[in-house]
Amino acid sequence: MSEKNEKLMGAISGIGDDLVEEMAEDIAAVKKAAETESSHEGAGRIIKADLTRTNDAPQKKRRTPLRRRIAALAAAAAVLLGAVLLPGVFQKGGVLPGQTDGPKGAEKGVVTVLAEAAYPELEVHNFESLDLYQEAVAAFMQRAIPEIAKAGDEGQNLAFSPLNIYMALSMLSETVGGDTQKEILDLLGAKNMELQRRMAAAAWKNNYFNGDHGKLLLANSMWLREGFPFKKAAIETLAREHFASSFSGQPGTAEFDKALQDWINKQTDNMVKDSVDTLKMDPATIMALVSTIRFSGIWSDEFMDKFNTEDTFHAKAGDVTATFMHQTHADTVFYGEKYSAASKDFNSGYIMDFILPDEGVDPAELLSDPDVLKFLTESWAERYERTQQKRALVNLSVPKFDISSDLHLEKALQSLGITSAFSADKGDFSPLTDEGGIFLSSVQHGARILIDEKGCEAAAYTAMMVCGAAMPPTDIIDFTLDRPFVFAVRGGDGVPVFVGIVETPAK
What we know:
Number of helices: 14
Shape: globular
Helix content: 25-40%
CATH class of the largest domain: Alpha Beta
Distance between the termini: 50 Å
Largest sheet: 9 strands, mixed
Number of domains: 2
CATH superfamily of the largest domain: Antithrombin, subunit I, domain 2
CATH topology of the largest domain: Antithrombin, Chain I, domain 2
Mean pLDDT: 76
CATH architecture of the largest domain: 2-Layer Sandwich
Radius of gyration: 23 Å
Structural class: alpha+beta
């Protein structure tokens, strides 16, 4: 027996043989579903699902930091808080003495780690061939992006992760039933939970990777009130189907808040720390579902900093000086009714779209334009078939930027048809608990993305940019992003991982 499993069995031995047997079954289920080694520690009755990344598993090799080579960094977190209207239902839960593992605060007897998931260091994507997944996710993105964008402040920088929000809602769908579940599944594009689980698994496989060329790490967690009567089956399902870890404690305490903050900061490498450190759970909270995403990308063809210039960016609030990166290469520029667009590749197979509105068009308008939404969610083959384009030598000028957003998505989700989950009278959380008066009280989403000139150090990757059989183009196009523009980071399956608006490059 491994040291971790010995610690697990020792920690839970005092709860009774029946719970020991159940937890052992949980471990086997998680290991089988994830097809990887998972570690489970702690005990207690309240749980919260959480995805712990590979470097949390001590048996895995820790990678050398990529920052000196990274071209783009991004992170996002979605936090869904559930509350109860029955203040007398809370019980003061206890934890086992001597429990010291898990997030900070556990040594004070506040946080109990019920289960943690670990993931392998996947070097490349494992693309899932599931047309229905791509169609459903694209439809979700096209519906959700305009509403999510409205949650931002007008005229301010905007950054969010549609994929992160999709994964969070997929978790939420496991905790609700009846019409409440149907509203969520309708938005996600699934006819039933079995299909949604398949699509969530496909989203995971198509995006999660951790290699020398970059990484995209997903993580989920569920934080539950100690002593509240949750159903064990719901927690097991989240662990099995969503690689979820579980934590319990007392919402409304500084220690439990700090544990939650520390977990999110760990998953996102402190990229959204300013936002995360303000997160607090109301004492009425019984559950918090958390989903995170962390992306690092290396340009396949780097910008050279010796060509950088200090130029003017024409922001709405007035001109500002920004550092522009410049590069000339053979590429394709796409044209729509209100925009033009160019893309730049990462070594990982991901791309970054830069969408420049036509003069007089507000970038926020583009994020509600059906043509642009189609452009952001379609495959490369569809894009080339559907969109007007021109192959040329492109003089690309991109400002370095570092932007972030903190969004409340309650109104956005209700506009998208998820209404009963926000109602204590109509919300059906029966898969999670038999208690009534449960409702979704808050949905918070924070994201940050930055790009710079650092890119690939291996020449082999730059060959991917070359079209060997094509004649070099003779036309030249200047594609200069010197006014507010839209961007998107997209995976090889065409799914937008991050979307946003740069109103001003200055942080």
